[in-house]
Design goal:
The complex is a heterodimer. Chain A contains twelve helices and 14 strands. By secondary structure, chain A is an alpha/beta fold. Classes of the chains: A alpha/beta, B mainly alpha.
Chain lengths: 393, 321
């Protein structure tokens, strides 16, 4: 028995080591390439987001190299798994910088892990383009000299909702948010953004996303007779809120977060989903956008390319964040090459700070004071009508 | 202590370890330095777990909680209340040990699977507190800008400097633990592990010994946690969750539960295996699991003991009879 196990182990190791040796050899041969790194959540709780990011980066790497790379030199993207764990991510980042000599780093997938990488990146003086949501990753900007990011922030999502409410002459709202991480961060943004808009929160309730009944909280909200209700959570809990509101005959407008931007919400909420309005990045609704939208062509192209490789309906917003990061970094390298300047990490950072890009998450206008560069127009409003998404613009 | 590094061999092994450890940062590669630094931090927690699980025979599936409490107390005191980071670290260690001591009495009324469940539950409750007490801990968004340690004007602000600090602490912890294991306390611990009733009939206060060891291992975990917080400068709940508790148990088991120096080896194998498997991409987790399973089948006493046995078998075969 022991012998069998031992032979099995030996085989696994041999099979395992062979590709390792092979890739060791490659590194020695081709020095004429631009190496950029990525640290993504490929396992752990962030892996459903990290996977499309990885697929997008691999697709773009192949596309760019097939088209001749940058000025004849290939681009190489080295991707390491963070396991959605800060410690592993920090070590992986150091490995990219020290061992692989990358020019820039993309990632991490989740906010906490990105935050944990800040010191490492700043000390090493290599630019980082994060794929995570939190505002704090790039603020205060004077301490985040080397840090950029591509996804829109919660306060922008909330801003989009409040902008819509003001346009409908609604100023008294009730909010009900989930107690998970997504809901807590959203709640912070909902309360914080009231300073910038003419909106008053008259009732503030929370719900556990795993609960199956939220009539208690909604009855309290009903008592305050708000003009609209904003529910912040992912599809599971939000669908219960929608159904319970229907039961309680609360017919004021119901607004939700981008957390319900999947067909699962409509499946779970059924008839109650109709009339719900929520903001979403433009990718899932690319076909619905007017032809005048500057992003429409880019969105449709990414969607078509990605779905050709990975299957119908597989393109999502998270892969889009990686698309933006890759284009920002490679465009910066291209610009440096065009100017005849040396391609260095510092050079890429300076180019990132002035980058203009029509991307997947929005139209980026980076500046020294804004390391995200997206406005509220990066999001579009969707209304569910007869179980289908329609533009609410 | 495995047999093959006793006496002169032991001194030699330790001397080699110390020399190897001092050389690595001189290579000037922050990647190697940081990998070893993290191994040092994890080894400190693992030693405590070995004392508790290997020597005293009490399971803990919630050790990440003590690691986290240490990290959060040190971080909150030094940043929010501007306490000197060293003092904050001492407070963190004492407070965590006191907490473990207090919780030890009810917890150790349980045995076997029930004890495992209780420690598991404790770990999860503490983790939820880190997440939900957001006005103190920063909640999901984490706790940023934790100051770093310094002596006089000398700040431990680079990997190079922090590395020696961590390994200094780690070796100190190793020696303390080695002495405890060899003392009257150590004999009491092993007696409890082998038969709690028998040890009590010999006049050992089993509960008190168990609670003391839990408090000591919690103190180690808090020391490691506060070092982690000062090193990274940012903490959020995920690194202190259930998965890390399991990972710690894996480190202790791979190194050999009843082996103080094996803890370094266990922490190192788990970390290095993760690094080694990185290039395999998606399947690294599967390979990791496979290797652990195989180690457990071939060498249930831990890798160090397994290597020792192998060495003895080879030397026996080589010596002419």
């Amino acid at each position: 028995m022991k012998k069998v196990v031992f032979i099995a182990l030996a085989l696994i190791l041999v099979i395992g080591i062979t590709p390792l040796m092979a890739c060791g050899g490659e590194e020695g041969e081709t020095t004429e390439e631009y190496i950029i790194g990525a640290v993504l959540a490929l396992s752990g709780h962030g892996s459903s987001l990290g996977e499309p990011e990885k697929q997008t980066l691999e697709m773009l790497e192949d596309e760019l190299n097939a088209a001749g790379g940058i000025d004849g030199k290939n681009i190489k993207v080295i991707i390491y798994d963070t396991e959605t764990d800060s410690t592993t991510a920090i070590i992986a980042t150091k490995r990219l910088i020290e061992q692989d000599n990358v020019l820039a780093v993309m990632g991490a997938t989740t906010s906490g892990v990105s935050m944990a990488m800040l010191d490492t990146i700043t000390d090493a003086q290599v630019p980082l383009v994060s794929l995570a949501a939190s505002d704090e990753i790039i603020q205060p900007v004077e301490q985040r000299y080397w840090i950029f990011k591509t996804p829109q922030t919660n306060s922008q999502v909330v801003g989009r909702l409040y902008q819509y409410l003001e346009s409908q002459d609604i100023d008294e709202v009730a909010i009900i948010s989930a107690t998970d991480g997504f809901g807590v961060l959203g709640h912070g943004a909902l309360v914080g953004e009231t300073e910038n808009w003419d909106i008053t929160i008259v009732a503030d309730e929370t719900f556990d996303p795993d609960d199956t009944d939220m009539t208690t909280q909604l009855t309290v909200i009903k008592g305050y007779t708000p003009e609209a209700v904003i529910c912040w959570g992912t599809d599971k809990g939000s669908s219960v809120v929608a159904k319970n509101m229907q039961t309680l005959q609360m017919d004021m407008p119901l607004l939700m977060s981008h957390g319900i931007a999947s067909m699962d919400f409509i499946d779970a909420a059924g008839d109650a989903a109709n009339g719900v309005i929520f903001p979403v990045g433009k990718l899932p609704v690319a076909e619905l956008l007017p032809d005048t939208d500057p992003q429409k062509d880019v969105l449709l192209e990414y969607k078509a390319d990605f779905e050709e490789l990975y299957g119908e309906g597989s393109a999502d917003t998270f892969g889009g964040h990686a698309w933006d990061a890759f284009k920002l970094v490679t465009n910066a390298i291209q610009d440096l090459v065009d100017e005849g300047a040396d391609v260095t990490s510092a050079g890429i950072r300076d180019k990132l700070e002035t980058a203009q890009l029509t991307g997947i998450s929005g139209v980026f206008h980076m500046s020294a004071t804004d390391h995200l560069g997206l406005g509220p127009d990066a999001l579009t409003l969707v209304e569910i009508v007869d179980g289908e998404w329609t533009s609410a613009e | 202590m495995p047999h093959f590094i006793r006496g002169r061999g032991k001194m030699l092994a330790i001397a080699t370890l110390v020399v190897l450890l001092s050389i690595v940062p001189l290579l000037g590669n922050n990647y190697y330095t940081s990998v070893l630094l993290i191994i040092g931090i994890h080894a400190i927690v693992t030693v405590g777990l070995c004392l508790l699980m290997g020597y005293t025979g009490q399971v803990s599936l919630g050790h990440a909680a003590f690691y986290g409490i240490g990290a959060y107390i040190a971080a909150i005191l030094s940043k929010t209340y501007h306490v000197d980071p060293w003092l904050a670290m001492v407070v963190a260690i004492i407070a965590t040990a006191a907490f473990a001591f207090a919780i030890g009495f009810p917890v150790f009324r349980l045995r076997g699977n029930y004890l495992a469940m209780a420690t598991l539950g404790l770990g999860i409750i503490i983790w939820i507190l880190f997440r939900e007490l957001d006005w103190i801990t920063g909640g999901q968004s984490g706790f940023l800008d934790i100051p770093t340690l310094s002596i006089g004007g000398f700040a431990f602000d680079s990997d190079f400097r922090f590395y020696y600090l961590v390994w200094g602490f780690c070796l100190a912890v190793m020696f303390i633990s080695q002495n405890i294991v060899g003392s009257r306390m150590g004999r009491a611990m092993r007696a409890i592990r082998d038969s709690e009733s028998a040890s009590q009939s010999l006049g050992i206060n089993a509960t008190l010994v168990k609670v003391k060891i839990l408090a000591l291992s919690a103190a180690y975990a808090a020391l490691a946690g506060s070092l982690y917080a000062y090193y990274v400068g940012f903490i959020d709940p995920p690194p202190f969750g259930f998965l890390f508790s399991i990972r710690l148990v894996v480190m202790a088991v791979v190194g050999g539960l009843a082996s103080i120096w094996g803890a370094i080896f266990g922490a190192a194998s788990v970390r290095l295996l993760t690094e080694f498997l990185h290039p395999f991409g998606d399947i690294d987790v599967v390979l990791f699991g496979l290797i652990i399973v195989v180690v457990m089948i071939l060498s249930p006493q831990g890798v160090i003991r397994g290597l020792g046995d192998l060495w003895r078998r080879i030397s026996r075969r080589l010596t002419p009879s």
